[in-house]
Design goal:
The complex is a heterodimer of chains A (10) and B (212).
Chain A: no helix or strand
Chain B: H1 3-26, H2 34-47, H3 58-81, H4 96-108, H5 115-129, H6 132-141, E1 143-144, H7 146-173, H8 178-190, H9 192-200, E2 208-209
Antiparallel strand pairs in B: 1-2
Classes of the chains: A little secondary structure (10), B mainly alpha (212).
Keywords (chain B): Cytoplasmic vesicle, Endoplasmic reticulum, ER-Golgi transport, Membrane, Protein transport, Receptor, Transmembrane, Transmembrane helix, Transport
Transmembrane segments (chain B): 65-82, 94-113, 119-138, 150-172, 178-199
Pfam family, one (chain B): ER_lumen_recept
Chain lengths: 10, 212
């Protein structure tokens, strides 16, 4: 899993 | 961020503002399904809990706060302030037939069996069917105020633009979220009948009335 949070959509 | 996602978010924001202003200015929620608005409030609450755990951008955080705030304000106006104008008789869709299956599906089909991820999945599935009580109410009353049709058009358009956003992101970023895409397709398909009526009637200045 990539470290940055993956839910960047609204 | 790409143009489809930005215009999608702005279309969604426009829909939310149009509805809030319609109810506030006309001091009436006639023709509006309170049940759909409750479902949308649940969608935003379960999807945006990550406001408490992660920061993505000012834009992301402010839009989430605005969506949640407007959703609850709309529910408050419908069920408290202007409840005398709420047409409960026509807002009779059995939402438990939506929430229970969607809840079960979110537990069975998700990307990761964690609390936040299951809530996010639940919100994605729920959003795809949350407009059904509103569309059902219009089919029962046989008509809709023109401002309500503009609200529905913007609301339906937002997820259609998100579909284009996912095509864009698949092609340029090889980003692909099957759950969001499938739910987004279902959500947009549910508006097709309305889109047809909106384009053939409302845009020609006629009132939207369904063959009762």
């Amino acid at each position: 899993l990539d470290d940055d949070y993956d839910k960047d959509e609204l | 961020m790409n143009v489809f996602r930005l215009t999608g978010d702005l279309s969604h924001l426009a829909a939310i503002i149009i509805l809030l202003l319609k109810i506030w200015k006309s001091r009436s929620c006639a023709g509006i399904s309170g049940k759909s608005q409750i479902l949308f409030a649940i969608v935003f609450t379960t999807r945006y809990l990550d406001l408490l755990t992660s920061f993505i951008s000012i834009y992301n955080t402010s839009m989430k706060v605005i969506y949640i705030g407007c959703a609850y304000a709309t529910v408050y106006l419908i069920y408290m302030k202007f409840r005398a104008t709420y047409d409960g008789n026509h807002d009779s869709f059995r939402v438990e037939f939506l929430v229970v299956p969607v809840g079960g599906l979110a537990v069975l089909v998700n990307h990761d069996f964690s609390f936040l991820e299951i809530l996010w999945t639940f919100s994605i599935y729920l959003e795809s069917v949350a407009i059904l009580p509103q569309l059902f109410m219009i089919s029962k009353t046989g008509e809709a105020e023109t401002i309500t049709t503009h609200y529905l058009f913007c609301l339906g358009l937002y997820r259609a633009l998100y579909l284009l956003n996912w095509i864009w992101r698949f092609y340029f970023e090889s980003f692909f979220d099957m759950i969001a895409i499938v739910a987004g397709v279902v959500q947009t398909v549910l508006y097709c009948d309305f889109f047809y009526l909106y384009i053939t009637k409302v845009l020609k200045g006629k009132k939207l009335s369904l063959p009762a």
